[in-house]
Amino acid sequence: KGNYDFFNKPYGLEHWMENGVGMGVDPATGTMKDEDVVIILIDPDMALLKPIGADFSNVNNDIIFKSLRGKNLKHNSRVTHGSPFAATYGFGNQWQTKVNIAGIAGSDSPALEVTESESLSFYTVGPPYIATARDMYSISVKWAEFAPKVHNEYPHLLAEMFAYCLAAAHTKLPHTLVDSLMVSCTGCAEGWPLLGNIPSDEVCEFPGSMKTGDRVPHVIHFCQRYMAGEWFFGKRKLPKDFFTCEHPLLATPPKNLASIDYKVLPSKKEKVVIGTRAAKQEAFMICGLTVFLNDAAEFFKEKHCSGVTG
Question: What's the pLDDT band for 172 if we cut at 50, 70, 90?
Answer without folding.
Answer: very high
